[in-house]
Amino acid sequence: ESEGSDDSSSSENNTDTVEAEQEETRQIFDQQQQERRGPRQALIQQRQQEFANVEWL
């Protein structure tokens, strides 16, 4: 019986690990994408911010 409970707990841990690794991979991918289009994205955000500021005035 103890072996059965061991199996279930280890498989749960394994799932958590896989999900954590997938999350980490996705975050790294997002970061790389942002860095690749970083300057342009920053410019767009700056423009949007200025536009928003003008709207508020």
H-E string? HH
> How many domain units?
1
Largest sheet: none
Helix content: over 70%
Q: Give the uncertain stretches in residue-range form.
A: none
- What share of the residues does DSSP label as strand, in percent? under 5%
- Count of discrete alpha- or pi-helical segments spanning 4 or more residues: 2
Q: Let me know the number of strands.
A: 0
Terminal Cα span = 71 Å
Mean pLDDT: 78
Rg calc: 22 Å
Cα shape: elongated
- Coarse structural class: mainly alpha
What is this structure, in a nutshell?
The protein is mostly helical and 57 residues long. Helix content is 95%, strand content 0%.
Overview of this protein structure:
The protein has 57 residues and is mainly α. 95% of the residues lie in helices and 0% in strands. The longest helix is centred in the middle third of the chain and has 35 residues, at 2-36. It is elongated. The mean pLDDT is 78.
Which descriptors would you attach to this protein?
95% helix; mainly alpha; single chain; 57 residues; elongated; 2 helices
